[in-house]
Amino acid sequence: MKYISTRGQAPALSFEEAILTGLASDGGLYVPESLPSFSKEEIASWAGLSYQELAFKIIEPFVAGDIPSEDLKGIIERAYSSFRHEAIAPMVQTAHNEWVLELFQGPTLAFKDFALQFLGQLLDYVLNKRQQKVVVMGATSGDTGSAAIEGCRRCQHIDIFILHPHQRVSDVQRRQMTTVLSDNVHNIALKGNFDDCQNMVKASFADQSFLPEGRQLVAVNSINWARIMAQIVYYFYAGLALGAPHKDVAFSVPTGNFGDIFAGYLASKMGLPVDQLIVATNSNDILHRCLSSNDHSKKELEHTLSPSMDIMVSSNFERLLFDLYGRDGAAIQQLMDDFKSGSMTLSDEALSKASELFSSYRLDDDGMIETIAKVYDSTEYLLDPHTAIGLAAARCERRRQDIPMVCLATAHPAKFPEAVEKAIAGMQPPLPHHMNDLFEREERYEVLSNDMGLVQSFVQKHSR
Ligand SMILES: Cc1ncc(COP(=O)(O)O)c(C=O)c1O
Ligand SMILES: N[C@@H](CCOP(=O)(O)O)C(=O)O
User: Which atom in ligand 1 lies closest to the alpha carbon of residue 143?
Assistant: First the structure.
């Protein structure tokens, strides 16, 4: 399987090269040259498989030729061995024909674990084989950081640097990152917002001359294709549990960088009968504005109570646009150039294609708080703020009541006690046992100004 850039100018790469490259040399993102697709009969034959068995079926065609089957099975087994629930991605019913897919049963309590525990094992395997050392640089609005650190901290071939926006992540999220004191783990609190962190990481990929001799940068953000690939699995897992491929299913996805919902889009292209995908945003609503009124213009980023979705530049939207524009790299380059100057306008054809599958919704902090309270009142089920936005979107935007609606629960409520307490006075969701002493642990991180030179010299100095 070959991987090509969404901007059409970078060389095609193998799977292994693509996951080690991160951003393509033309600034685009890697996608498979062609997608594997599965017949209805084949999908039906997967009913009852364990999460790990299903992951193998779905991931194998993407890595064929690069990773032998038995090795891939080992990578998958190790990746999901630290999850706290045997089902890996259990579902809870919250109303008639409405389900919450709990993607927070991994070690760091957010859906990021699905891809990042997998990516950690994958990188360990590939780098060990190549006897190569790399520098990982990642940007986080709160959840990618801890999942990436957990995935990479035992890998001797990796030095990992995670940039989070200073004072813009929850205390639990920050401590999950900054209390990991391994020699190869470095946290930078950047005086800026998530987009500043992400910009800095992307710009560093374009010019890696600041790295020590012989090192290359690897991405753990969803610009790395392996992240998206691993996330396709749970759409099939949930769909199969609800009667697919014989029945359709719909998903509502709390959205920021568009990685998670893009994986749902790919699942539908690979054969899962998906009736609808709902893009649920907080008041940083650029994707909702784009899909509902063709307004994809940058605005000031707001700090909300769902901080992980405080994102204005959604990296993976480019991957969807690439398909909507008939895989025309030049057209994507033009759109991205326009967006760099403030806004881009989609063609009527692209927008109408998108609306066949996608709907969108925006919910501010007040609406989110109301949703947590209302759902808790009726079911005693406690939502995290991001999931609450997804569930409200599911209830407002759903096209068909007869098709099961799955809302992706992207984080555990204990990561966001401030929002939960605002919704239900006196409620303090407990952290799972393995994090009982999180607030007693020592923290280590560096606060840096939003200055590329400072960040890059920090990375250079601390790369071993
Ligand atoms: C808890 C949570 N929910 C939703 C999202 C949005 O996911 P995506 O960026 O893949 O759209 C994120 C971060 O990205 C997150 O951490
Ligand atoms: N919400 C994310 C932001 C980074 O997104 P990614 O999926 O591209 O890593 C976070 O929690 O860090």
Answer: 16
Three-state DSSP at 247 gives coil
Instruction: Report CA-CA distances (Å) from 149 to 29, 107, 112, 162.
Output: 23, 11, 11, 8
Beta bridge partners of 32: 3
Neighbours of 334 (CB within 10 A): 14
Measured from the Cα of 145, ligand 2's closest atom is: 12
How far is residue 261's CA from residue 354's CA, in Å, rounded to a whole number?
13
Residues 254, 363: Cα–Cα separation, whole Å = 10
Q: How far apart are CA 103 and CA 237, in angstroms?
A: 12
Question: Are 279 and 306 spatial neighbours (Cβ–Cβ below 8 Å)?
Answer: no
**Which residue, among 161, 157, 163, has the nearest Cα to 214 in the 3D structure?**
157
SS3 220: coil
Q: Whose CA is nearest to atom 1 of ligand 2?
A: 308
Check: CB of residue 218 under 8 Å from CB of residue 161.
no
Whether ipTM tops 0.90, in short, is: yes
> Which numbered ligand comes closest to the C-alpha of 315?
2
Note the residue count of the chain: 464
Residue 112 among the catalytic residues: yes
Q: Which residues pair with 297 in a beta bridge?
A: 343
Q: Residue 195 Cα, ligand 1 centroid: separation in angstroms?
A: 14
pLDDT score of 464 more than 90: no
**pLDDT tens digits along 284-334:** 999 999 999 999 999 999 999 999 999 999 999 999 999 999 999 999 999
Element (DSSP H or E) covering residue 252: strand 249-254
Helical pair 317-324 and 329-340, crossing angle rounded to 10 deg: 140
CA 128 to centroid of chain Cα atoms: 25
Alpha-carbon distance of 332 to 326, in angstroms, equals: 10
Mean pLDDT of the chain, nearest integer: 97
Q: List the structure tokens of 80.
A: 């999901």
Could you give the CA distance from residue 268 to residue 249 in angstroms, rounded to a whole number?
A: 10
What are the backbone angles phi and psi of residue 247, rounded to the nearest 5°? Answer: -125, 150
**Assigned CATH topology for domain 86-109+225-423:** Rossmann fold (3.40.50)
Alpha-carbon torsion angle 351, 357, 363, 367, nearest 10: 150
96, burial (CB in 10 Å: exposed 0-12, middle 13-18, buried 19+): exposed
The amino acid present at 169, given as its one-letter code, is V
**Can you give the residue ranges of every domain in the chain?**
86-109+225-423
Decide if 150 contacts 395 (C-beta within 8 A): no
Cβ of 224 below 6 Å from ligand 2 = no
Rounded to whole angstroms, the Cα distance separating 285 from 276 reads 19
CA angle, residues 162, 205, 330, in degrees to nearest 5 = 130
Question: Which residue among 152, 170, 221 is best mutated to probe the pocket of ligand 2, counting the most ligand atoms within 8 A of its Cβ?
Answer: 221
